[in-house]
């Protein structure tokens, strides 16, 4: 028996995490993500989990990584300023292949910016924000239901690929209330256990090593230094670094068809909107108000790794239009994969593109 | 049909809760769709507070309110900040004792606060009186739905008082 | 005598310089672990960045070599999620008191049940000998070429003030006392902080007129005064010798602790 609630996006995110078996939350209050921490503080102790309010966001993500190495599903939630503080340890999680979930309820930046207003300004930061080369997964919900569903899914992806996985939401979806259906249980895919005789960082064919959490008797040494398959530092051999970092990137990038999650409307269209997060809802509104087969829509539920093959679903496309709540971030990714003109429709300041605004753009580009 | 309802008043009146209760009534008990949003920020404390709801029979795509067709205004500052630009086709419920101004659109004066203070003996239920009036004056959700949503949302032990406030609101809304 | 099965023999040789005191402190810690009867698969070593923080890499248990300054925050996550695991943190003065200072005081305040051993060599050793928050005033380092001009932190007193349940300080000279203190810390529920002052002959000693390892160790020995002696001097109104620091147990108490296995 599932239950139906009228719930805020941030609360649904917390419920999604709990349903997926998250049992550790380390966080630091920050608008507009705080309700996630508050919900976890209320619910986790009763679910046999641990909620801990850390001294800052550097400590929050550190505690989450520590908990993840004990085998717990672990999460933190933040917004721009805290996300910036987490960057070093996000790189550590990528380097050490630690499965964990970081929720970013994006707000207007840079710096303190607009704490109570929505933005999608951290989309490139979540892909490239820590130093060095690595790859991650980022999910972008556009409804309260997806705050639940995609948070739960983020844990599976984090475990499956052993990467820090991001739920890149925003103030609009985080703070709105909608009907949400909460299932009694969600299916959970935990990391593949480290096989007997395998080394702790020896990857399978998919580039992902088996996982031996602390306490399982495998004496795993985890380090952010460049390391070999035993986990031992090997910091000067160019080949050792090349092999490790190429694998960290490839295990995600080569699985992007498997990871991809997107919706296609009107594949024969000539003018195609590409969206993620709440601007998708404005596009859906425009398309419902003005039914027109020449307008298509590619809505990404997962932005990173970027599913460039999904752009080829529109063979007749003449123009791609990309509304984002930033000055044009993921549009760069679209531009480098197609030959057609790609038009950025940036909007900053905290409000969603209105249907009227997108209709005006359509009138120019159709 | 899409309705956009905006509530405004001052912090402490239960403005945001009113919006949540209305959304809950529509989404859980009237088999409709609802999206509730609100203004966050320092100005929500003491100053004008604002919450809004979109209600529709079909799934709500664009989630924001652009031009409300129903207003519930419970303070002069709320009127000035969030009600004064109401379109001519809109309808506004005004707490008559707290709002001096009147809009150019159709409006109903609901003495919610004085009813709450006087007849009901608790000023805190003024927003529930207003909700009752909203439901009978506009029919935006059903009486049954709002009753259930109110009961879901109020503290234990206050159910009777709140139901009484709601029913008083129904009467005021019918008369309006 | 430390049983060799606690070491990762395949990681040898280690990176420590000749005459470094860190190996002594690792030995004392493992002797204490043995005294406690902890099992290898129930014990986790956590560290940050620096010479001290390489220690877990030489020990045959699960180990988390983390980012600079954050070891205590990582360790908090490990211990809170799995209170049945024994958690030991190796850190250094730069890692703990500079970049990790905020985590240090909050870990002590929370009093999470773990043992924290700080190898305080008064210098950033791994990066080549820059001044740290514990570099004594007047000491020469590559970033204090005219002598350190900032006051130094007293790490053990800081831990006492911040709320750790057990705090002691010894040096690499006081091998038996240090081993006993680590074991006492491990026995005490809550956060135990053991400051182990140690020599860095490569990057500290040779710039500060302590040219040999033995000169450095003698310097540590001769400047250490027991807490009881310090208290007696204070009570008698006598001066504390110049450059002296206390050694011994500074606090053992029973404040509420987190992450204690029930």
Automatic annotation (TrEMBL), chain A:
Keyword hit for Oxidoreductase:
yes
Q: Which residues cross the membrane?
A: none
Oligomeric state and interaction partners are given as: Heterotetramer of the KorA, KorB, KorC and KorD subunits.
Which species is this UniProt entry from? Methanoculleus chikugoensis
Q: Enumerate the catalysed reactions.
A: 2 oxidized [2Fe-2S]-[ferredoxin] + 2-oxoglutarate + CoA = succinyl-CoA + 2 reduced [2Fe-2S]-[ferredoxin] + CO2 + H(+)
Q: Which UniProt keywords apply?
A: Oxidoreductase
Annotated Pyruvate:ferredoxin oxidoreductase core domain residues: 269-357
Identify this protein by name.
Answer: 2-oxoglutarate synthase subunit KorA
- Answer yes or no on keyword Protease: no
Q: Which gene encodes it?
A: korA_2
What's its top-level EC category? Answer: oxidoreductase
UniProtKB/TrEMBL annotation, chain B:
InterPro entries hit by this protein? 2-oxoglutarate_synth_KorC, PorC_KorC, Pyrv/ketoisovalerate_OxRed_cat, Pyrv_flavodox_OxRed_cen
Q: Alphabetically list the UniProt keywords.
A: Oxidoreductase
Query: What is this enzyme's EC?
Result: 1.2.1.58
Top-level taxon in the UniProt lineage: Archaea
Query: Which residues does the UniProt record annotate as the domain Pyruvate/ketoisovalerate oxidoreductase catalytic?
Result: 11-171
What molecular function does GO assign, one term? oxidoreductase activity, acting on the aldehyde or oxo group of donors, iron-sulfur protein as acceptor
Protein name, as recorded: NADH-dependent phenylglyoxylate dehydrogenase subunit gamma
Automatic annotation (TrEMBL), chain C:
Cited Gene3D superfamilies: 3.40.50.970
Question: EC number(s) per UniProt?
Answer: 1.2.-.-
Give the residues annotated as coiled coil: none
Q: Which residues form the Thiamine pyrophosphate enzyme TPP-binding domain?
A: 49-195
Q: Which GO terms describe its biological process?
A: cellular respiration; organic acid metabolic process; sulfur compound biosynthetic process
Q: What CDD domains would the database entry show?
A: TPP_OGFOR
- What's the protein name? 2-oxoglutarate oxidoreductase subunit KorB
Source organism = Methanoculleus chikugoensis
């Amino acid at each position: 028996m599932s239950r139906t609630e009228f719930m805020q996006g941030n609360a649904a995110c917390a419920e999604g995490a709990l349903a997926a078996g998250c049992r550790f939350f380390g966080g630091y209050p920050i608008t507009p993500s705080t309700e996630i921490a508050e919900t976890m503080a209320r619910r986790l102790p009763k679910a046999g989990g641990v909620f801990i309010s850390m001294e800052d966001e550097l400590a929050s993500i550190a505690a989450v990584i520590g908990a993840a190495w004990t085998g717990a599903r672990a999460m933190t939630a933040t917004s721009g300023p805290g996300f910036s503080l987490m960057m070093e340890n996000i790189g550590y999680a990528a380097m050490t292949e630690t499965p964990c979930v970081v929720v970013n309820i994006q707000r207007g930046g840079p710096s303190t910016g607009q704490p109570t207003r929505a933005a999608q300004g951290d989309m490139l930061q979540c892909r490239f924000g820590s130093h060095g080369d690595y790859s991650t997964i980022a999910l972008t919900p556009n409804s309260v239901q997806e705050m639940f569903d995609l948070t739960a899914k983020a844990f599976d992806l984090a475990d499956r690929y052993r990467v820090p996985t991001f739920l890149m939401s925003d103030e609009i979806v985080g703070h709105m209330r909608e009907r949400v259906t909460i299932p009694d249980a969600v299916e959970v895919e935990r990391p593949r256990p480290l096989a007997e005789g395998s080394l702790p960082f020896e990857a399978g064919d998919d580039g992902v090593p088996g996982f031996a959490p602390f306490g399982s008797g495998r004496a795993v040494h985890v380090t952010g230094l460049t390391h070999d398959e035993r986990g031992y530092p090997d910091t000067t051999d160019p080949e050792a670094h090349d092999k490790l970092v190429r694998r960290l990137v490839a295990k995600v990038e080569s699985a992007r068809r498997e990871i991809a999650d997107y919706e296609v409307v009107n594949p024969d269209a000539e003018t195609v909107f590409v969206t993620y997060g709440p601007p998708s809802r404005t596009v859906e509104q425009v398309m419902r108000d003005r039914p027109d087969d020449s307008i298509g829509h590619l809505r990404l539920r997962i932005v990173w790794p970027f599913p460039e093959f999904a752009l080829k679903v529109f063979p007749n496309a003449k123009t791609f239009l990309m509304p984002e709540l930033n000055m044009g971030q993921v549009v760069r990714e679209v531009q480098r994969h197609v030959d057609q003109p790609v038009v950025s429709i940036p909007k900053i300041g905290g409000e969603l593109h209105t249907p009227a605004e997108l209709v005006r753009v359509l009138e120019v580009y159709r | 049909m899409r309705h956009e309802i905006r509530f405004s008043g001052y912090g402490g009146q239960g403005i945001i809760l009113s919006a949540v209760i209305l959304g809950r009534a529509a989404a859980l008990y009237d088999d409709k769709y609802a999206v509730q949003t609100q203004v966050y920020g320092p100005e929500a404390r003491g100053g004008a507070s604002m919450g809004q709801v979109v209600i529709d029979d079909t799934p709500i795509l664009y989630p924001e309110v652009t031009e409300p067709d129903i207003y519930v205004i419970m303070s002069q500052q709320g009127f000035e900040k969030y009600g004064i630009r109401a379109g001519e086709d809109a309808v506004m419920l005004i707490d008559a004792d707290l709002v001096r101004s009147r809009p150019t659109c159709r409006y109903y004066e609901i003495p919610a606060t004085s009813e709450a203070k006087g007849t009901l003996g608790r000023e805190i239920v003024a927003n529930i009186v207003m909700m009752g009036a909203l439901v009978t004056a506009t029919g935006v959700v059903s009486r049954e739905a709002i009753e259930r949503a109110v009961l879901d949302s109020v503290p234990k032990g206050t159910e009777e008082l709140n139901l009484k406030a709601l029913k008083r609101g129904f009467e005021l809304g019918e008369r309006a | 005598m430390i049983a060799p099965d606690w070491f990762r023999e395949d990681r040898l040789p280690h990176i420590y310089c000749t005459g470094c005191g860190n190996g002594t402190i690792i030995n004392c810690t493992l002797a204490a672990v043995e005294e406690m009867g902890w099992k290898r698969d129930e014990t986790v070593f956590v560290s940050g960045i620096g010479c001290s923080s390489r220690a877990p890499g030489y020990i045959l248990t699960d180990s988390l070599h983390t980012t600079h300054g954050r070891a205590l925050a990582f360790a908090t996550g490990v211990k809170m999620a799995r209170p049945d695991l024994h958690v030991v943190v190796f850190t250094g003065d730069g890692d703990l008191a500079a970049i990790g200072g905020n985590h240090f005081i909050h870990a002590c305040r929370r009093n999470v049940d773990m043992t924290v051993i700080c190898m305080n060599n008064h210098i950033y050793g791994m990066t080549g000998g820059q001044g740290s928050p514990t570099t004594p005033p007047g000491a020469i380092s590559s970033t204090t070429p005219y002598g350190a001009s900032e006051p130094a932190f007293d790490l053990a007193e800081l831990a006492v003030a911040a709320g750790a349940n057990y705090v002691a300080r010894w040096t690499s000279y006081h091998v038996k006392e240090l081993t006993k203190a680590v074991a006492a810390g491990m026995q005490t529920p809550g956060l135990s902080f053991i400051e182990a002052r140690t020599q860095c002959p490569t990057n500290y000693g040779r710039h500060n007129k302590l040219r040999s390892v033995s000169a450095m160790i003698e310097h540590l020995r001769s400047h250490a005064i027991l807490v009881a002696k310090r208290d007696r001097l204070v009570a008698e109104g006598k001066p504390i010798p110049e450059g002296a620091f206390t050694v011994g147990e500074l606090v053992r108490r029973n404040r509420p602790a987190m992450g204690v296995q029930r």
